[in-house]
Amino acid sequence: MGDFYQNGIITNFHNLRTHTTEDMEQELMAFARQRPMSLVLPSLFSELEGPALGNIVKELSQVRYLSEIVIGLDRADRNQFRYARDFFAQLNQHHRILWQDGPALRELDRMLDSNGLAPREPGKGRNVWYCYGYVLASAKAEAVALHDCDILTYKRDLLAKLLYPVANPSFSYDFCKGYYPRVSDNKLNGRVSRLLVTPLLRALKKILGPMEYLEYLDSFRYPLAGEFSMRTSVFNDIRIPSDWGLEIGVLSEVKRNYSSKRLCQVDIADNYDHKHQPLSEQDIGAGLSKMSHDIIKAVFRKLATNGVQFNTETFRTIKATYYRVALDFIESYYDDAVMNGLYVDRDSEERAVELFASNIMEAGQYFLENPMERPFIPSWNRVMSAVPDILGMLYEAVEQDNQ
User: 159, 195, 328, 388: least buried by Cβ within 10 Å?
Assistant: First the structure.
């Protein structure tokens, strides 16, 4: 049972178990007449063969308030794309698949790249960026949700709760972030959020003093959640990273463009589980090691745009302060887990903290050595300014591939 406590500088919507899924969906049906809704699903082809996506599609087929579902399909050849069309055919809503490796989209990507406007590397950020462009091109929605395709515990009420704050015409929210407990198989999960992001933010507040941006990020109960919703007007002007910094990058961009009063978070699930990444202690280019590296860089880049100056000594201080704060958090999480009958491997937790501390220095050094790096994908406003008919071209490319 959630409480009603409001903390931080953004509105928090709780799950007080007093609103049934059916009642909420009836309200969303009414909202849809004034504020049509879409859903974006960024997916690897491998997820079509996994244990989660089949159930997600089954649950979504029961949803009646969506105008459109846009599926971003990555790492699929022609036969796999055909398989995906059959796989998603059970959806009852109008839907389109953005075949990221298809000939039409690849040709469009080459044209944008020749103008310096294409995403620079493959990944979730690139997938999401093209999907958002298609949502703008199709013009079927004013509110759009996004969630991952590997959610093993998916129920359709997750989507209803995620969309409600931005779909309700009487509310003034432009962006909503989902959150949930990370517990499964009698274990406490969510290591990167628990043991990196929150301790890093607390360490930075100790070192840099009061800063609205840090207070803002620290207001989110699960800042790395891959589930969020927004008004379509929001992603006209946001620049998103193409790496694992996507979630932090999106939060940073909406804070840059909107008052905190227009941003919120919502409790969307009692139980949430998805595929887990390995720690990858020996490989900074994989698993949680790469994820932590990209997230740390995203935070440092944003702080630099706020006027914070960094040098090697600064990063040493951040690392030392983070390490002490994170070790204290391990103790707190361990006690919390024990009280709730959950298992926590303290050795594994400490090894994760040691890796994240090392990556603070690695990411900091990379930041200093690459001052001209352009990590963000251009905003759609910029692309439309440079290529005025780009949305029409994108729409036609998707239709061509789907045919």
Answer: 388
